[in-house]
Amino acid sequence: MLTVIWGALAARRAQALAVLLLAVLASAAAAAAPSYVAAAGQALARYEVSRATPNELRLRLADPVEYPGVPGDPARTPFADMVKKLTPAGFEVVLGAQSGGVAAGRDGTVTSSLVFRAGVCERVTVAGACPRATSRGQLPEVMVGTHTAARLGVAVGDQFTFGAVPVRVAGIYQPLDATDPFWLGAEYIRPAAAGPTGTSAVGSAEDAIFTAEAAPLTDDQAILYRSTADLYVTERLFDTRSVADLRAAVTVVTRDGSREGLGGGTSLSSLLDRVALQRGQLADGVTLGAGLLVLLCWLVLFVAVGSAADQRRPEQGLLLLRGVQRRRLWALAIGEHAIPALFAIPLGCLGGLTAATLLAAHTLPARADVTVDATVIGFAAIGALGALAAVLLTQARMLSAPVVDLLRRVPARVRGWRATIGDVVAVSVAVAAVVQLRSGGSPSGLALVAPVAGALAAGLLLARVTMIAGGAVGGALLARGRTAGGLALVQVARQPRFRPLIALLTVVVAMLAFTVATSEVASAAYRDRAIVEVGAPRVVEVGATSRSHLLAAVRAADPEGRFAMATVVTGSSSAAGTPLLAVDSDRLATVARPHSSYGMSLADVERKIRPTAPGAPVHLRGRLLTIVISASFDAEVFGGNRVRLAVTVSSANGTRVATSRQDIEPGRKGYVLQVPECAQDCRLVKIDIVAPVVSRNLEVRFEEMRTGDEDGEHETMVLTGAQFADITRWRLTDPDDTFLDATSGTDVALILTVPENRRATPAGIAVADAPFPLPVYLTRSTGTPLGGTHPYDGVDGTPTTALVGGVADRLPRLGGSGLVVDLEYADRLAVASQSGKEEVWLTGTAPVDVLDRLRAQGLVVQSERTITGVRQDFDRQAPALALRFNLFAALAGVLIGAAGLIAMAAAEQRARVAMLVALRRQGLPPRAVRGGYGLPAAVAAVSGGLVTVVIWLLTRSGQRLFSDGRSPVPLPDWPDVGRLLMFTMPTIALFALTAVVLGRVVAASVRRRSGR
Amino acid sequence: MLNMDGVSVGYGDAPAVLTDISVTVRPGRVLALTGSSGAGKTTLLNAMAGLLRPRDGSVTVDGRPLRDRDHAVEHRIVLIPQDNGLAPILTAAENLQVALVAGGVTPPEALRQTAAMLDLLGLAGQADQLVEELSGGQQQRTAVARGLALRGGVLLADEVTS
Prior knowledge:
The complex is a heterodimer of chains A (1012) and B (162). With 1012 residues, chain A is of the alpha+beta class.
């Protein structure tokens, strides 16, 4: 049998080679997917590691016992032995020890930590030297940060005390890279505090003070320290171990460490979760492209080998006629094709690896190694064996056909259920896949290949329609004497093997268009989401001492409002709350990036949220504030229930409540409050009468307000009685239960009446220097109509109410839910310092030194995001990487489609040429000799377009574009047609060119054989 | 009138199959050619039909040398080949129709003649069947019908009754 198989291979070398090549292609396509997933998984892990917070990269173990002495190297302690025993393979361990305390130097003190940390000297630049181990009796050596040295007033060689222990400064350090996970974020290098001394230097006075390996003290009891070990996860670990392995290792360390009594903590699991999620999404996303490639390869084999098999029907018939058993024919068919399929597995592995390597090099955000593993070999085998199955399936009909049928040159048409079973299966699978995809949730299983399944089913149906229509039209053309066109049509339409070819080309065109469309929409979605979520071309998160500091600093850095805007963003802690964006509204339209999805213009927002204030703010300047009050209440009835005066003031350092030391007593009296923050300037927010129990009516007359200093100098009248009595200046903080009135004449004053039995909240008057309720622009999703009032937590977190001045579909930075207010007004209404994220929004044209300008105003620059950067981040996530693989697969599919057309033509060329030669001998003119291969290409163009629309409508909603789910910005409904055509037109042109060349080959062959 | 004068024909570089053959086919006459298998009957007909160019001698139609098969078709030399020469993907009627239209008959006339000729040969019921679906005899009769429908000046029929 082997000899016969070898003979068959030798006799049909071309076909064996075609099967080998196509099986290699299928095998390579199948192998490329897991190779790419593995490589991209590595790159994703590296990317996630690069973005992880330091705490997400390490697992900390801490010695339960505190030891006396200066923190030193715990390497030779039982703790280190225990850590060594517990540490899983591959984790990097950094041993340390630390002790909290207060350092006191010549110029000041600072609360800090005395720390030993292995390897610190390699990560700093030092003026002086790294601390060296000292012996008992010597002063321990330490290394302090630049800011700490400045605060303590020490230089190299100086001394200071930590706790009660004198230490010597061996060096003053600056971290080489403060973002190195070694520093554990803010644990050792603390962020600088905002304020007038804002600086660009990293760190603060609270930075860790580092010690040497050993520094025994005479009096060990002076300091207590605790040993620590940080177990770092490395990029290499993600390359070599699965996330599940790492998670198990972390669980074991945590459990065993806890058993041993070690303290610890980690956020490593959140990093592992992210990596696992991204890898899972990548594998799911790549399934579509891999499925497409493998399906196309199998289809091409089905088409090509099926056509070749048809040409051998008489040969098979003769063999059967001569008594050869069918099982031997089966064995021959299997053997003849199994050999190329088996050879295809290793070659496919290599091909898949090569493709994955090339693709990885061009698409992945970080370096990744492409390697062969069992999964790759397994997928390559599936691809090759699937190819073998496709080959055998094409021959099944021939090998089971009656002898009489085999002896016919053209196979009898398949009728009955057999003719439609393939279509029924394809349509059923497609329907199931689409239904599963549209049923919601995360796509899995069949839903992942829904577009391919849909394209195949639609392609098969359209191919069937094409065959019927082509046959009918061709026949009609022949009857009308249009011989050339009619012949070209019927040559294809009456040859059943062309049906899978047409379906194949349709799938190729449709999937290319679909993949390009998805990529296009993804690209637009990444851009849109980045614009909306970032809000402005550049957004710098800063630290400011207060909202007013932020506002003033940004206005000082950009006095003309051309490129910078102060904003505060608060997310609501309660699910029912509304996130808030407070902006320096005059600059909103200039700085924020507009977007069509907002459904409003930023200039409108500016106008609506910044109406004229009802009154001017009341500014105070002086350390002491005196308020002259005439109170009227029955002190006896109030008994021991105190009535107190509280004033809320807002300065550059925040908002604070100052309370009078003296309780309010009946009669006229000046009450003095300490307001040191008002020495330069501050703003009066409100005056409260704090009376927990109001037994009888309480009336308070505000008659005067003065500021001054402790020494009695610089006394200034802030408000006279007449100014107090202007009730338009004031707003009752509780208009339901308190009353405001004014007197005139000589005893002009403002009167606040608190009725008896009022509930126990402060009764107060706030300066009406901002509209209340504050006008806001609100997102439509909240349901509050235009002109309505909407409850929300103010910029200081205090519950309040807004007046809806405009409704938007979306808001910059907040997306589909939130409201935007004017920051200055919101700050004036705020009664507490608490604030959200303080940000400075910048235009793309902001000067290069803008960050220095902000620092010069005392802001601390913490982080920066740009629309471009966020968009690139989206582009580096698993769905984007999967899309790139799928686009590669779709482009490879175009070549497979062209190969299919060529293979089909090659297989049936002999019969076609023979027929055309016969017709030429009967007088058929040479111009009527055409290949007819243009029809599949033309049909593929049209049906590919139709199928693209169908699968786009049915499955686009199920395509994952973002790793964290849906974008708050609606996705474009349709892709950019121009770009779509840029990919599809060359594809159709390639098919058309292939068809023309194949037609010319046929015509040339006919010419040769017919003598002209 | 089709005339062969001292014709020698062969295939490729192989020795000539027929040498020094002279035949004259006159209008209105039936000429039968017999011989044992491999004697060269089909080769001679192919040379007369313009499919084989003679190595020596000449083939003339009405006194003018026959160049090739297209030239023979122009001079209405019809050939019914041994293998019928039918296109399997066309119906019986279409095989006639294509040949008639190629011969210059208008499509409606070609349709009429096709129907008439198929009817004459008892193939009216098979007109719309693909050739692949016809029996061997029906295929042969279809080829004969096509040959007759073309109404050639010379009809060369190769083993049409076998």
